[in-house]
Amino acid sequence: MKERAAQIAAETIVDRLRAEGYDAYFAGGCVRDLLLGRKPDDFDIATSALPETVLAMFPRTFAVGAHFGVILVADKIDGEEIVTEVATFRSDGAYADGRRPQSVRFSESAEEDVVRRDFTINGMLLDPQLLRESGDLGKAVLDYVGGRADLRDRLVRAIGDADRRFDEDKLRMLRAVRFAARIDFEIELGTAAAIQKSAAHIANVSHERVRDELTRMLTDGRARRAFELLDRTGLLRTVLPEIARMQGVEQPPEYHPEGDVWVHTLMLLEQLPAGVSPTLAWGALLHDVGKPATFQRGPGRIRFNGHVEVGVRIAQDIARRLRFSNEETAQIVALVENHMRFGDVEKMKASTLKRFFRLQAFPEHLALHRMDCMASHGGLELYEYAKQRFEATPLEEVRPKLLVTGRDLIEVGLQPGPRFKELLAQAEDAQLEGRISSKEEGLALIRSLSDAAPIP
Ligand code: ATP
Ligand code: MG
């Protein structure tokens, strides 16, 4: 529905630009997706009209990237608010910072515009008028860069000289991996070799941009392949050395028949569906990140004592480095921190279990545990038990209104302090376990506890 409206909005803009005598096409990702039979996320337009012309021609516009000739045009189609990116044909000047051109030159030539784009499959234009008239996608595509052939051969190939293109903008190396993974293409040999040569320079790209690309790889539904490609191209070592270190870290075969920590992690990534929450995806990637540093062979068998605590610290470092928000960091770290607790769920007292369920977004913890099991022994008994108990416990039982509060303790003459806190927690445990069901019973419990060990 939304795609349809987006396409109509874009067609309307192209028609209007053409009626005024300008050249205009659909450009880039949407052409690729249409040719692949995938639904485009958005329809971008490339035109010979200058930004000021575009601004003047449409009533609701936003000059977000006017410097690069990009104008957003807003329109309402069938009640849907649609914003379309309209970019003036351009060629890019010299790149100095390894990410953006210092200057751009607007151009009248569609061909000039496509050669500054990153990959041949992203460098095609489409004439929507011709498509309407002929009904033939093939006839309506303008392909100056060999994009159709590469789509057919399922290749991600840099436009022009690959070394130069990655030297200009290092982020393109991650984009190559992301596109190849998402649509299950190979990276063309020369393009892959150029990435291998320049991989270490990915460190010049801002951490935020790297994070966003990695998050998209993790949540596009092809995370395993993306990480295999990151590894093969040599990018992984620079963007996430902590993950690269998992390779070759053996695990005890009786618990982990699948292999080393890297293989185990890839098997979790394989289970991440498209559209998965970014925090769960990062939690899956990082849950065992403490294992390489804690590996110990014997006595008896391989152990990773303290891997959770070490993993928490490493996950915190990574989240900080990649500039995750505090909220996202907290959730990712909590997933790492709690992933081993499922081993004890059947033995947990009701109070412990309910406190466990209080974790923020508990279903993400459950989902991670499930993936963790599926990526090793495959047994889901503990998962099923935890899930069933979680679903059977309403929120008001997980976090009930307290029968005994701090104020009650003060009223019976107790002084706030560590022992006071402990008594309060014991009253709450008793309530969560159903051992008390009224304030009176709670106070009686407190009295017996503090008689046994009076507050000094
Ligand atoms: P997605 O479906 O992920 O949005 P997309 O192909 O639309 O894929 P965008 O990042 O939206 O990718 O960029 C739109 C187009 O702009 C690309 O198809 C490509 O032609 C061009 N482009 C984007 N980023 C770069 C870049 N770093 N270098 C060169 N061209 C780029
Ligand atoms: Mg796009």
Question: Care to describe what's here?
Answer:
By secondary structure, this protein is an alpha+beta fold. The chain has three domains: 1-147, Beta Polymerase, domain 2 (2-Layer Sandwich); 241-398, Hypothetical protein af1432 (Orthogonal Bundle), CATH 1.10.3210; 406-452, no CATH class. Helices cover 53% and strands 10% of the residues. The protein is built from 26 helices and eleven strands. Strands 3-4-5-2-1-8-9 form a seven-stranded mixed sheet. Strands 6-7 form a two-stranded antiparallel ribbon. A two-stranded parallel ribbon has the order 10-11. Helix 15 packs antiparallel against helix 16. Bound molecules: adenosine-5'-triphosphate and magnesium ion.
